[in-house]
Write a structure and sequence with these properties.
Layout lengths: L1 H21 L3 E3 L4 E2 L4 E2 L5 E6 L8 E6 L7 E4 L11 E5 L5 E5 L5 E4 L9 E5 L5 E5 L5 E4 L7 E2 L5 E4 L8 E6 L2 E12 L5 E6 L2 E8 L17 E7 L3 E8 L6 E5 L5 E7 L4 E8 L14 E3 L7 E3 L3 E3 L2 H5 L7 E3 L9 E9 L7 E3 L4 H10 L5 E3 L10 E4 L6 E3 L6 E7 L10 H35 L3 E7 L11 E7 L11 H7 L8 E5 L2 E7 L5 E7 L7 H13 L8 E7 L2 E7 L7 H4 L2 H4 L4 H21 L14 E3 L5 E3 L4 H4 L6 H4 L6
Parallel strand pairs: 24-32
Antiparallel strand pairs: 1-10, 2-7, 3-4, 4-5, 5-6, 7-8, 8-9, 10-11, 11-12, 13-21, 14-20, 15-16, 16-17, 17-18, 19-20, 21-22, 22-23, 24-25, 26-27, 28-32, 28-33, 29-31, 30-31, 30-33, 34-35, 36-37, 37-38, 38-40, 39-40, 41-42
The protein binds 2-acetamido-2-deoxy-beta-D-glucopyranose (7 copies).
């Protein structure tokens, strides 16, 4: 009898040992997990157990990648209640609660707070890194760690909210690199208004993803189709979330909210055995929330980065000039409600949607109608930009957190504007202005013709060379380091530089429509235009602040126009109209070099041979400017953004003459600018 019991207990022991070996990815009511033991997911990807961070004796229950050499914790259970010894044990209770207890005295330090009515419960570590509680025959989870993330989002995890169950998955950073307790930063799905991801620093917004536009988040144009992961955004009555999945399950990728307040995407490089940082949010200064405040637009290519949107002006110009943008911008012309219209702005990160109104199925026309009829509606736009566009956003407050991307990134938004600001909408005042302008232009042309012939004659008589040494100081406040020296050889200015008439330019650029704006240089905005003959041009509208006289300006332009080299952008004319001076350049269809070399996808288009050709071309252009040209010019701002590319990807240096043309004549704002590259 006694022998039988012994055999029975022995076999049950044997059985339980076998059971443990067989079921290493599970914890059952009878088999708790004690400190020093581990649970490994069935595919061997993740491991669950107790760990201590570097330089710490505290013991936490966590999940990490099993296969890789760098210990990477993706989830922590008791982040606020660590053990200070190895007495911890993870237990599954009969009623489906997962608890961390002191195995010596039974005190509970952490609990999943879950209950279940299922029979024969198990807690299982899935190969996705998800720790779930379920009945052994039931596919439904009564609790899962993916619903209670720490600081890491793994493939398959939903980042967002379930409106039915109330589950809200919020990432919260570790306090420091070696302390898993709650840090200052959280990353969550905000559902006031249309959903958008928000990174909070305490209770203030640090970064905003912008609303989903069907392809990606409005504020993350870098989120594109890629070989590592796919992604989706789901928004319906039940839930709203963003999630991603691996294309190749062996290339790990994760999103982690680091203690410094940056959400980083990493992917594991098996060859070098390090995590490669793919993208960050916030990625730059313009990604920080509300940098330029109401109606200010942030553009990292500008310095300073904030400017008022077109047709807006700083609310407090003095503060604005000293780079204090906290008062934002206001319309130059106040609204008048009934007769207002809308102006389209392109290449924009849509403003904060927290207080916006939306309708997912409304057309843009209907959207405009509704916005038009409500005087407090400030702007409208599509929600989904795929195809012809769909859905309707309406904004009723000042537009916050706008940035300008330009190019193909960013979206269109239509902002309410007083009728007198509506460019081409055919108001009498506008027509009168254009008429006067063309009259002025004809007059100027006439005067120039006369002065030209007179000057030519005089020059021929004199036939002597004038050498002028000009030492021009541009940035008084920056001291001698930014002084600029030129040798100007002023010989026969016999060159026919077309003077364009202002109506031609207005027509070509569609009255300087914001959608034609292709950039903003230090000296003013640049617009794309098409002349009647179909020739494409780029019009640089020099800031009106320049106090240079028209004659001086003309002379300068003629000098610059003489600089002809295949690696310099060709100036084809200018236009003078009252205070306004414009330069007309040939249009470069392939944009500037920075759009290639700083972009992963575009960068692939430039193979080594092309790159070498571009480098060579830039060097030739520079050599010409420095040594071979009539004017000796030091560019001072040579950067990828100033290298334009023609149809055949030949490099052309731009902006080379303007520094010289405007020395000493800049506004205070421009002179404070840090110069040069
Ligand atoms: C666990 O219980 C033992 C015995 O009461 C105690 O000495 C120890 O400090 C406890 N550990 C923790 C982390 O509470
Ligand atoms: C560990 O924690 C327990 C409970 O908080 C405490 O009573 C004990 O003194 C601690 N032990 C050490 C070595 O700090
Ligand atoms: C479980 O409930 C307790 C008490 O309400 C709470 O302090 C704790 O944070 C909860 N645990 C989890 C994992 O939500
Ligand atoms: C999972 O839950 C749903 C609804 O709660 C239920 O209809 C379904 O039968 C459950 N699945 C299993 C395998 O029990
Ligand atoms: C990583 O590389 C090693 C050796 O090169 C290989 O054995 C292993 O399968 C690779 N792991 C993954 C996840 O690709
Ligand atoms: C959204 O717009 C569509 C089409 O105009 C309309 O039928 C629908 O009722 C609107 N939904 C809401 C909630 O306003
Ligand atoms: C305009 O829209 C606001 C915000 O939705 C609303 O409170 C107000 O009643 C509307 N006014 C009119 C005249 O419809």
């Amino acid at each position: 009898m006694e022998g039988l019991t012994r055999i029975a207990s022995l076999s049950s022991l044997l059985f339980s040992v076998l059971f443990i070996c067989d079921a290493v990815d599970k914890i059952t009511v009878n088999t708790p997990l004690t400190d020093g033991n581990y649970v490994v997911s069935s595919g061997g990807t993740f491991e669950l157990g107790f760990f201590s961070p570097e330089n710490s004796i505290n013991r936490f229950l966590g999940i990490w990648y099993k296969q890789i050499s760098v210990r990477t914790i993706v989830w922590v259970a008791n982040r606020e209640t660590p053990f200070n010894d190895t007495s911890g044990a993870l237990k599954l209770t009969e009623n489906g609660n997962l608890v961390l207890v002191n195995s010596t005295n039974g005190v509970v330090l952490w609990s999943s707070n879950s209950t279940s009515v299922s029979m024969s419960l198990v807690a299982q570590l899935l190969d996705s890194g998800n720790l779930v509680i379920r009945g052994s025959s039931d596919g439904n989870y009564t609790w899962q760690s993916f619903d209670h993330p720490t600081d890491t989002a793994l493939p398959g995890m939903k980042m967002g909210k379930n409106f039915v169950t109330g589950v809200d998955r919020i990432l919260c950073s570790w306090k420091t690199k070696n302390d898993p307790s709650r840090g200052d930063f959280t990353y969550l799905m905000d559902t006031h208004g249309y959903p958008q991801h928000m990174m909070m620093s305490g209770s203030s917004v640090r970064f905003r993803s912008g609303p989903w536009n069907g392809l990606s988040f409005s504020g993350s144009p870098g989120l594109k189709k890629n070989p590592i992961y796919t992604f989706q955004f789901v928004f319906n009555q039940q839930e709203v979330y963003y999630s991603f999945d691996l294309i190749n399950p062996y290339i790990y990728s994760r999103l982690v909210l680091d203690p410094d307040g940056v959400l980083r995407r990493f992917s594991w490089n098996n060859r070098t055995q390090v995590w490669t940082n793919l993208v960050n949010a916030p990625a730059d200064n313009c990604a920080l929330y509300g940098q330029c405040h109401g109606y200010g637009s942030c553009d990292t290519n500008n310095s300073p980065i904030c400017s008022c949107m077109d047709k807006f002006k700083p609310k407090d110009p003095k503060d604005w000039l000293s780079a204090d943008w906290s008062n934002g911008c206001v319309r130059k012309t106040p609204l008048n409600c009934k007769s207002d219209g809308f102006i389209k702005y392109s290449g924009i990160k849509l403003p904060d949607t927290r207080n916006s109104w939306y309708n997912l199925s409304m057309s843009l026309e209907k959207c405009r109608e509704i916005c038009m009829t409500n005087c407090s509606c400030m702007a409208y736009s599509n929600i989904d930009i795929r195809g012809k566009g769909n859905g309707c956003f309406l904004w009723f407050d000042d537009l916050m957190d706008i940035r300008y991307y330009g190019g193909n990134d960013g979206q269109d938004i239509y902002i309410r504007m007083a009728s007198s600001e509506l460019g081409s909408s055919g108001l009498k005042k506008k027509i009168l202005r254009v008429c006067l302008a063309s009259l002025g232009a004809v007059l100027i042309l006439f005067l120039i013709l006369i002065s030209f012939t007179w000057k030519k004659k005089k020059d021929r008589e004199k036939r002597q060379k004038v050498q002028q040494q000009q030492q021009l100081t541009r940035e008084g406040s920056l001291g001698s380091s930014s002084r600029q020296f030129y040798t100007v050889e002023n010989d026969n200015p016999d060159i026919d530089l077309p003077l364009f008439d202002v109506t031609t330019i207005l027509k070509a650029t569609n009255y300087f429509s914001p959608s034609n704006k292709i950039g903003e240089g230090g000296f003013g905005p640049v617009y794309k235009g098409v002349l009647k003959e179909g020739k494409e041009i780029a019009v640089k509208r020099l800031s009106k602040y320049s106090t240079q006289g028209n004659d001086e300006f003309k002379n300068e332009v003629i000098l610059i126009a003489k600089l002809q080299h295949r690696n310099l952008v060709n100036l084809i004319g200018c236009c003078i109209h009252e205070e306004e001076k414009m330069l007309i350049y040939e249009f470069m269809p392939n944009n500037s070099l920075d759009t290639y070399i700083f972009d992963k996808d575009q960068g692939r288009l430039l193979d080594w041979q092309k790159r070498f050709r571009i480098i060579n071309g830039i060097a030739r252009g520079l050599l010409y400017l420095h040594q071979d040209s009539r004017l000796r010019i030091i560019h001072r701002d040579l950067k990828a953004g100033n290298i334009l590319l023609d149809v055949d990807m030949n490099p052309k240096i731009s902006d080379f003459g303007m520094a010289r043309s405007f020395v000493g004549n800049e506004t205070e704002a421009n002179t404070r600018r840090v110069v040069g590259t």
